[in-house]
Amino acid sequence: MAEPRTIVRLAPGQRDLPYDLFNLHPLGPLLGAEVSGLDLRVSPTSAVRSEIERALLEWKVIFFRDQYLTAGQYAAFAQLWGKIEENPFMSNDENGDTSRLSVNDSEIGRQKVWCTDATWRSNPPKCCMQRIIEPPSVGTGDTVWADTGAAYDNLPKDVKTFIQPLDAVHDFVPSFGLSLPADKLKEYRLRFPLLAHPVVRTHPITFRKTLFINAAYTTHIPALTLVESEMLMRFLLAQASIPELQIRWRWRAGDIAFWDNRATWRYAVSDYFPQTRIAELIAIEGDVPFADQGIQGRHIQGG
User: Tell me, what's the pLDDT at 12?
Assistant: First the structure.
C-alpha cells in the first residue's frame, strides 16, 4: 500500500455561517476550535445549545477555557447532550457520572495509543468531554485529537474500496481486562461480549465516512489473516500520525474539552511522570455504528 500523497482538507458546508451567541476561534483548518463568551455554570438556552452542537459537528472537538464548575454543574452540562454512560472499568464518582483519571508518582499514565472511547460497547459514546482539575507542574499532559474523516478521505482509492465492506472486532480486554481476576473477567465478558463494528463508519448526522478502528480496543479484522489484519490496521492507524490531521491542546485548570467520539481519535500525552495530573471524563451514550447511510452496522457476538 502506498502512503497517501496529499492531505484532503474538507470543511463542512455550513462553516460559512456565523456564530451569533458566542465567539468561536478555529485552531486548525480541519478540527479544533476554542469557544469563548459562555459561562457553563449557567444552563444554556436552546439556541446556545444548538450553536454548540453545530460547532461540535463542524470542528469535531471544541474547548472552553476557565470553566470552574462544580461536579454537579459539570454533569448537568454533559446531560444536555444525552444520557451519561458509566465506565465500569474506571474509578467513578458516587453517582457514576464521571470517570476519574488520576496519575501520580505511583502510577504512570498508560494510555499512550490512539483511541476512540469505549468502542467495545455495542453503542459507543457519541461524544465525550473532559475537564482538568490539576494539570502537571512539569511536562504538558497535553491531549491530541486526529480527524478520522479526513484520515479516510486521505486514503488511496483502492484502499477505500478494499476496506468498505470490512468489519473489525472490538474488545475491552486489551485495555482493561488483563489485570482482572478470572471471575471478574468472566463477569465482564458476559456483559460485554466481543462484537464487530464496520471499519468505515458513516456519521449518523453528517453522513461523512470515518475510520472506526483504534489501537486501544480494536483487536483484528476477521475477514483477513492475522498477518494481513495487523498490517492493514497499522496502515490505517498510521493516518492519525499525520500532523496536518491533528490538533493538540495545552491544558490549564478549569478547561473543558468536548469532542465528537464518532469522528476523532484521541491521544493522551504522558510526558509528566512522576508529576500528578487529575482529570474527569464523561461519556454520552451513543448509537450503533453503521457502514452506509441508512444501513445499520453489521454486528457479531462471541467469545
Answer: 46
